[in-house]
Here is the input.
Amino acid sequence: MPGNMLSKGEVFVIETDAASREQLSDALQQSAYDVICFADGASLLSEAKARMPACVVLEMPPDRSALDVLKRLREENCMAPVLVTSANGSIAMAVDAIKSGAADFIEKPFRTHDVVVRIDAAIDESAQPDSSRQRWLPGCEPLTAREGDVLAHLAAGLTNKEVARRMHLSARTVEGYRASILKKAGARNVTDLLRRIFGQGSPSQV
Here is the structure.
């Protein structure tokens, strides 16, 4: 970490690729984070019981075991934001990660600077009071705060990429939220969704 810079907290990392792990660790340390790397989910979970990280970065292996780690963290009340990375991410995998409690889903290869920016954004958001819980669709499962924010941006006519830039997320994460919102609402697409929410006067540009 740069000299005399106060730590912004610990980031727990599981990353099997040595080069990616080293680059991410260096970038995080340059941004005043302390980095602890783990070989597997069990060791990370054990450490999380003793200390609360500021953020967790989990690599998604082919067996998708990172989802189990994510669920265990939430069950044990570790509320630190979790970013999931994957070399073969799909929308379905992004939806599963978000449903399991991930704050962001990042496809590999990634730029370490982008990951640090998203970690900063996730930590900042987790520190904010949750004011969006009241967003729901009549007769449907309530939207999470993040889903409500994504929906608001989509309703304003923004594309997935524009929403991703605005919210400091990956485009794949926004796609995952969008798919989750549509599923909860039973809507075929965003236009259908907005028609249900706002009546027939939905924005024509969406």
User: Anything to note?
Assistant: The domain at 130-206 is CATH 1.10.10.10 (Arc Repressor Mutant, subunit A). The radius of gyration is 18 Å.
